[in-house]
Amino acid sequence: MANSKSHKAHQPSQSGAHYDIMVGLSAVIVTVSKETPCVLVVRQNQEPESCDSAALPSGTFEPALHPTLETGLRAWVQAQTYLELGYVEQLYTFGDRGREEPDPGSAGASGQAHSLSIGYLALTRDAPKLRAPDNIWRSWYHYLPWEDWRESPPRMIAENIEPALKRWADAAPDAAVKRTRRERARSCFGFGHLAWDEEKVLERYELLFEAGLVAEAHRGQTDPAHSAALLGTPAMSFDHRRILATGMGRLRGKLKYRPVVFELMPPAFTLLHLQRTVEAISGVRLHKQNFRRLVEKEGLVEGTGKLTTKTGGRPAEQFRFRREVMSERPAPGLRVPPVTRR
Description:
With about 350 residues, the chain is α+β, with helices and mostly antiparallel strands. The chain has helices at about 70-80, 155-170, 175-190, 200-210, 240-255, 270-280, 290-300, 325-330; strands spanning about 5-10, 20-35, 35-45, 55, 60, 85-95, 115-125, 135-140, 300-310, 315-320.
């Protein structure tokens, strides 16, 4: 597959040196299957659990071939996965130095190169059968397990993350930095009596990266002492776990003010199916009656007049998305209530 390295553009710096600017395109393609939010990844070797074995579908932006960034992304995704993308939105442009894996052959004559990676979020209904042999649907909680609070706060937060972040804060060079690190940890992970904010996915990953608790923070280092501090979660190639965290946080936030969840739903569905899909994305459980009152209040769905017996219990009414709601109010969505550690 093509990696996230990309089209080169020579840019002079103030010192007169030239940098190779490389632009890559990556897609966070999301579906929800059997109450599991899945992301499409491309395996790069035969060992599914090996470090850096998975990458997001990605490729190079080629201006001669791609009239726009989005058409370039769609072309690469179709070539690598055989999927035709529907809903797509741009997430963010990542340009921090040192966050991409170095490509020894990428630097120009000056020996200096810089990578830009543009991430996109794409949504698809169901989990289409994959025709490419190196493609796989993988739960996004496989890569970010501390984000799934549906049953209870993940044990790894109390057992591993909280003590590790405390040690990191205590190792700060001065009292001000120590205080800042502690406040960031409390805010991101809801330590103490703070509520868990499901939208802070990227902030949590960035904090773990800065504290050296994820494998991506130690790329290129051979010191075995670093391995003891790692959480043991699977890494992804290049900067792709960071892009995945951005996509997860964006989708969780957008649930609250746009009816984007219906891009993941079939034309007809039960209210329980809708609730389980929202829970899968947000990572928290919702009160059944409160959720149904919220859906009714927002006017997001309407009954089809049909029943389904595929629920495993009593026949349930089927609903469909009311597209008219888009013109009735500026920000129709489903707000997830805050949760605290139990």
